[in-house]
Design a protein that fits this description.
Layout: E1 3-4, E2 8-11, H1 18-25, H2 28-31, H3 42-54, E3 61-69, E4 74-83, E5 89-96, H4 105-119, E6 124-130, H5 134-142, E7 146-155, E8 160-170, H6 171-179
Parallel strand pairs: 5-6
Antiparallel strand pairs: 1-2, 2-3, 3-4, 4-5, 6-8, 7-8
Helix pairs in contact: 1-3
Length: about 180
């Protein structure tokens, strides 16, 4: 269940994560392209961390990995995997605290999760981001994801229609990229 990369530990959420989780989820710049409640009160963060800690990463549905920086054992973000029934397809999403953005942590975390998923016979991974979130789109393309299409969704919390870019990465493409 735990995934190790050179600088990160992707693990189950722990009670000690609540304050850091609430802090980055309450940062307007981090929340800007996400569809979560903003700001995130400490009580809500505590409830979510408890809920996330009980989820099973092997079952269909969303499992959020806490992204911990090994250097100081602090939570710097999360990466969520939504396993589809049948186990051959999954969707992922990620968030990194603003102070830790631009340092390759998101790329490293996504790469670590992809390696784990594709080693478990996953066939396809999907990811979406707001079309205005060009940094996330570039990160996905850098990791080998291919742009599929753009579609719109209505965000009830924000009361606005949002354009979404959809990306995909197949196990075959991942294997080819790893050989290069």
């Amino acid at each position: 269940m735990q995934i190790e990369t050179s600088r990160l530990r992707l693990r189950r959420f722990l009670p000690r994560d609540v304050a850091d989780f609430a802090a980055y989820r309450s940062d307007r710049e981090v929340a800007r392209y996400q569809n979560w409640d903003f700001p995130l009160p400490l009580a809500s963060a505590r409830r979510l961390v408890g809920e996330y800690a009980r989820r099973d990463p092997t079952r269909p549905g969303w499992f959020p990995y806490a992204v911990e920086l090994k250097q100081d054992e602090r939570l710097i973000g999360d990466i969520a995997v939504n396993r589809h029934p049948g186990g051959v397809k999954a969707e992922l999403g990620f968030s990194i605290a603003r102070a830790r953005q631009g340092q390759g942590f998101a790329s490293e975390a996504v790469r670590g999760v992809l390696a784990e998923l594709f080693a478990q016979d996953l066939r396809t991974t999907l990811a979406e981001c707001d079309v205005r979130n060009t940094r996330s789109a570039r990160l996905l393309e850098h990791l080998g994801f291919l742009y599929v299409r753009q579609h719109s969704v209505f965000e009830r919390e924000k009361q606005e229609r949002i354009e979404i870019s959809e990306f995909t990465l197949s196990a075959e493409r991942w294997a080819k990229l790893k050989q290069q």
